[in-house]
Structures are given as structure tokens and as C-alpha cells.
Design brief:
alpha/beta, UDP-n-acetylglucosamine1-carboxyvinyl-transferase, Chain, 2 domains, four-stranded mixed β-sheet, 30% helix, binds shikimate-3-phosphate, EPSP_synthase_CS, amino-acid biosynthesis
Length: 449
């Protein structure tokens, strides 16, 4: 078998075209690879490190654009964060409540996690005034999901559309604790309120309709916060004001990035790929369950616990794939993996149904519409549903001109789809991948043999 020809063309405006030419007799994916650090854990390590007393050392931080946005916002409020490096980052904490008032607008770039989590912290910082914004995608994403509960706590926040859209202005206040029943299972909402609770005298509780990722809870505890969890009701309570102490954080590989290789290995015939050091926190492993339901052959090897998070090596070998239905409580545990699951479904036999995933419409792009449009351009049979997709697999995918819509997960999902498409696929605005996976193209070239 011959290798795929993969080229990147950078345009004058710095936008990149990723061109993938599959060899006529196909290819297979082989090797042992590592994926970059977990994005959710990287954000939280930088934030808690900045809020703690003493030094925090971070190993394995994701060097993507999103954590860079978090680091630059916290530096602008006085945190001393060393140069970002996956080997080692040192954060000299300034202590909870000690952030300085930034002299300029805090820019969260493309990162919803940076903006939403930071809002909890800013709103509960008495005596300081903050302004926050983001790129055009982030400025169109709903902020009322965090602004409303913060306002219930007494937070003062102003912005367009009744404070629903960034740019936002925040006058920090001493807040009052609340018990917030979130209408959506969202780790960003939960973490925002809990961060505000760290600074707030008394007990702040968040109850969510289904369990979302619990990295904040794990890290809050590791840094010394008093936290209680009621798994029966999906409730978390933090007692404030908290004192946080700098820690050593080891960031595992991001399962959301590993997901691209898991699907590629499953659908490209003859593949045998090991992805080492992947975080397998049960609140994130919905993708493994969904792929198992579809007949994927994925083994966990070398399971261990690293700095409070479960980690494993994942071995995937290609297999016959069939349809499944993905809906309900599993959705928050695989929400970021639905674009790449749609690629798996386009390849699998039968009609896969994805429901209860309306949240996809307010991610970095409308991931339901964009995935349906782009996969259909390749000859797939995808029908949009208000809260998901119906995907009939087994059609021949044909390489063509595609667009990431500046969404990192769309760019990478389409690149994986191109591995089972005939001819040449061109993905426009492919530079978006660097938001969460800066070396994606290099690894793609490495594993495609
Ligand atoms: C994240 C939570 C999820 C996820 C996002 C990262 C986090 O968002 O989609 O990529 O780190 O807390 P929601 O909380 O909006 O579901």
C-alpha cells in the first residue's frame, strides 16, 4: 500500500488549505502515537494555579490556541505564568481574590471555556472592573447560561442582547451563595458557578440534569477546596471562601483528540494503531461506548491513575462497523466527539440516529448543520434533526472541496473522512485545528501508511 499525499498550503491571509490525496488502492493507519494534553484540564490547571497560593507545576499542558488565551487573560490580571511548554509550565499563584484589575479588555479568543469559567471568577472579585470579549465565533455564542445564575448570586454583568453576548462588562461584587438547578448538563456552567462559589461566603451548589465532565471537581479538591458531591442528584457543593494551594498537575492526552484516531483506525481497513496516555475519565468516555456499540475494536491497555485522573493506552484495529442510536445521558459525555462520530456513522452499515444534542448548534460552529452540509458534499446521506442527525452509512464518499467553518473539530473530522473518500479532498480554513491540536497534520502524515 502507498501513503496518502498530504500537503498544507498557506494563503496570503494565513488561512490554510489541507489537501489529502488518498492513494487509489487505499491506505492503513499504523503506529504508536500520543495526542496533546487535555484541553479542559489544561484550562483548569492554569486557572487554579493562578488562583492558588504558591507555585503550580504543570506537565503535559496543551499548547493549543485555547489554553494560550487562558494564559494571556490570567497574565493580564497579574498571574506569573512561565512560557507555555508541554514539558513544564510554572504558575506563580497570586491567591484567591488578589487579581489586579486588567488595564485592557480580556480576550478569550475562540475559547468558550476560558470566557465562561473566567466570568465566575471575575463576577465574584469585589472592587474590580473587567471587560471580556472573544473572536467572532465566541461573540455569537450564548453567555446567558452563565450570566443568569451569576446575576442570581448578585453579579453585575452587562452586554449586548440583555447581557447574553460578549463583549461583556463585569463589576466584581461579594456574591451570595445559591443552589442553582442548571437546565443543561454543561461543565462550563457548573464550573463557572463553582468558581464563583470559591470566593463566596457559604455553600454554593449546582445541580445538573445529567453528569457533565468532572475535571473541575477533581482539581478543586486536589488544590484544597472543600467540596461535596451527591451522585444521586448530580449535585456539587463548594464551601467558600476557599483557600487553594499550588499543586503539581500532570495533564493526560485529550480523549477528544484521540477520538479522531479511534474513528480513523476503526474505519480505515487494515489499521492497527495505539494511542498512548489518553485520559479516560468516565465523564468523557462516551465516545468509547458509542464506538463499541458500532462494532469498533478498541482495547484499553496499561490502565493507571495519574495525578487524580484515570489514564490508559487505547489500541484500535479496523473492524466492520454498524449503526447505533446515541441519545440521552450519554450525550454530555461525548458532546465534542459527535462530529467525528458522524464520520464513523457515514461509513457504518445502517442508519445511525443522534438525538438530544441541540447543544451542538451553539459550539464553535453549528456542528449539526456544518457536519451535515460537509459530509453530504462528499456523498454521504445525512439529515439534520433539530437536536441531532440521522446518518445512513455505506455510500461511497468522494473527495471534494470542504470548509471547516473555522471550527477545529470540524476541520479534523473532515480530514479523517477524507481517508475513506476516493480522490482528493481539500479542507479550507484547516488552520482551525490548532485550537486544540497543533500537530494534527504532522500526526496524520505519520500514521497514514
Ligand atoms: C468544556 C465543556 C463542554 C465542552 C467544551 C469544554 C469544559 O462544553 O463542549 O469543549 O472544559 O468545561 P459545555 O459545558 O458547554 O457542554
Amino acid at each position: 500500500m502507498s501513503a496518502a499525499v498530504i500537503t498544507v498550503e498557506t494563503q496570503e491571509n494565513l488561512s490554510q488549505k489541507l489537501v489529502i490525496q488518498r492513494p487509489p488502492f487505499g491506505l492503513s493507519l499504523q503506529g504508536r502515537i500520543r495526542v496533546p494534553g487535555d484541553k479542559s484540564i489544561s484550562h483548569r490547571a492554569l486557572m487554579l494555579g493562578a488562583m492558588a497560593g504558591g507555585d503550580t507545576q504543570i506537565q503535559g499542558l496543551l499548547l493549543g490556541e485555547d489554553p494560550r488565551s487562558t494564559a494571556s487573560c490570567f497574565r493580564a490580571m497579574g498571574a506569573d505564568i512561565s512560557e507555555l511548554n508541554p514539558e513544564f509550565v510554572r504558575v506563580k499563584g497570586i491567591g484567591l481574590g488578589n487579581f489586579s484589575e486588567p488595564v485592557d479588555v480580556l480576550n478569550a479568543g475562540n475559547s468558550g471555556t476560558t470566557l465562561r469559567l473566567m466570568l465566575g471568577l471575575l463576577a465574584s472579585h469585589p472592587g474590580r472592573f473587567f471587560t471580556v470579549t472573544g473572536d467572532s465565533s465566541l461573540r455569537s455564542r450564548p453567555m446567558s447560561r452563565v450570566v443568569k445564575p451569576l446575576q442570581q448570586m448578585g453579579g453585575q454583568i452587562w452586554g449586548r442582547n440583555g447581557s447574553a453576548l460578549a463583549p461583556l462588562a463585569i463589576q466584581g461584587q461579594a456574591l451570595k451563595p445559591i443552589h442553582y438547578h442548571s437546565p443543561i448538563a454543561s461543565a462550563q456552567v457548573k464550573s463557572c458557578i463553582l468558581l464563583a462559589g470559591l470566593m463566596t461566603e457559604g455553600q454554593t451548589t449546582v445541580t445538573e440534569p445529567a453528569l457533565s465532565r468532572d475535571h473541575s471537581e477533581r482539581m478543586f479538591r486536589a488544590f484544597g477546596a472543600e467540596l461535596s458531591i451527591d451522585p444521586e442528584t448530580n449535585s456539587v457543593t463548594v464551601t467558600g471562601p476557599a483557600r487553594l494551594y499550588g499543586q503539581k498537575v500532570i495533564v493526560p492526552g485529550d480523549i477528544s483528540s484521540a477520538a479522531f484516531w479511534l474513528v480513523a483506525g476503526a474505519i480505515v481497513p487494515g489499521s492497527d494503531l495505539v494511542i498512548e496516555n489518553v485520559g479516560v475519565n468516565p465523564t468523557r468516555t462516551g465516545i468509547l461506548e458509542a464506538l463499541a456499540l458500532m462494532g469498533a475494536d478498541i482495547q484499553r491497555e496499561n490502565e493507571r491513575e495519574v495525578a487524580g485522573e484515570p489514564v490508559a493506552d487505547l489500541r484500535v484495529r479496523s473492524s466492520a462497523m454498524h449503526c447505533c442510536t446515541i441519545a440521552g445521558d450519554i450525550i454530555p459525555r461525548l458532546i465534542d466527539e459527535i462530529p467525528i462520530l458522524a464520520v464513523a456513522a457515514a461509513f457504518a452499515e445502517g442508519t445511525t440516529i443522534i438525538r438530544d444534542a441541540e447543544e451542538l448548534r451553539v459550539k464553535e460552529s453549528d456542528r449539526i448543520t456544518v457536519m451535515a452540509q460537509q459530509l453530504n458534499k462528499m456523498g454521504a446521506k445525512v439529515t439534520e434533526l433539530p437536536d441531532g442527525m440521522e446518518i445512513t452509512g455505506g455510500t461511497t464518499l468522494v473527495g471534494t472541496d470542504l470548509d471547516s467553518h473555522t471550527d477545529h473539530r470540524i476541520a479534523m473530522s473532515l480530514a479523517i473522512a477524507s481517508l475513506v473518500a476516493t480522490g482528493t479532498t481539500t479542507i479550507h480554513r484547516a488552520e482551525a485545528a490548532a485550537i486544540s491540536y497543533p500537530n494534527f497534520t504532522a500526526t496524520l502524515a505519520e500514521v497514514c501508511q
